[in-house]
């Protein structure tokens, strides 16, 4: 006699019906089955366990997509991750809670160029953790700078920029003080001794991103051959595309990428950082590498006015953010769901492609696509219910609805 599903697991099985789910790059009319925080293969359930759903939820024709993953977010809702305080955790917790309503189920808190004392104080207070009703999961920190180009510093404070001295990787360790929770480092590959740093970071499983840089194409290609896999906010804070030397932008169509490797690139699709035509050029040149990032600052979710980004004062006017008293762009106040909608509208790409740019691609970049970024069987049940215009209706982490929270869950 076949066992009932109860003998395999007592955990309830939830079946989401009347929905279109994003699976294998297509929106498909099928149900989503979840048990114990994972996506379940219903065929196995029927044939091996003779099981059925304990709970059925009518999704009223919603789209179900994997949760969004933001690999570059500097803060939001008044919290600036680059400000050293005694209690970094509560600021990160606030942001991780608030971004649930924008469909972000995991993220990389990002620190901009700061003095070593800030890294030494902040980094030990951040730990990698799973998401849940308390907020989006933390995948590790993105350190953007201080090993970047003076000419392309953007909103990074010049007097805190650094170069690699004779110690190279040791200089980086001394600056940051702690790499335990670090997932991504953005650096300028044209700097002397950067290649040994890229190799050592890569060896430790840390993703190296190229950005805030005046690198030419051959310097960028060499960095990729040493292990770099990402480009920080394409087109922003780098040499503009030039036909005789396309610079870092040329990596999108380079024939010097090692076999079996893919270069990913972040784009801030907020309608301000990149003209829609530039978004379209990048997307058409290399669609599978495009990763949507918010690059959000503390002013996201707040009224316009003065906010901070690390050591700088930032003025926010509408969707525009500038270093106070200048016209230098500094991060964004866009939310991830609005970036996905703007990207869809600007490029005319498919809904599937827009959703994957905020879920599958960042998961592939970080090498976690076996757990997150898709609705494949056995993956984490981190997903969103969206309407046809891609507004988030509900956010789930590990199969539990975390936004909007039911009154009894508060």
From TrEMBL:
EC numbers: 3.5.1.25
Cofactor requirement: a divalent metal cation
InterPro entries according to UniProt: Amidohydro-rel, GlcNAc_6-P_deAcase, Metal-dep_hydrolase_composite, Metal_Hydrolase
GO-annotated biological processes: N-acetylglucosamine catabolic process; N-acetylneuraminate catabolic process; negative regulation of UDP-N-acetylglucosamine biosynthetic process
Amidohydrolase-related domain residues: 63-401
Keyword list, A-Z: Carbohydrate metabolism, Hydrolase, Metal-binding
UniProt: substrate binding residues: 155, 236-237, 244, 273, 329-331
Domain of life the protein comes from: Eukaryota
Top EC category: hydrolase
Keyword Signal: no
Cofactor note: Binds 1 divalent metal cation per subunit.
Binding site for Zn(2+): 144, 212, 233
Keyword Zinc-finger: no
SUPFAM superfamilies for this protein: Composite domain of metallo-dependent hydrolases, Metallo-dependent hydrolases
Chemical reaction(s) catalysed: N-acetyl-D-glucosamine 6-phosphate + H2O = D-glucosamine 6-phosphate + acetate
GO molecular function, one term: metal ion binding
Pathway where this protein functions: Amino-sugar metabolism; N-acetylneuraminate degradation
Positions of the catalytic residues: 295
Leader sequence segment: none
Family stated for the protein in its record: Belongs to the metallo-dependent hydrolases superfamily. NagA family.
Official protein name in the record: N-acetylglucosamine-6-phosphate deacetylase
Native source species: Pelusios castaneus (West African mud turtle)
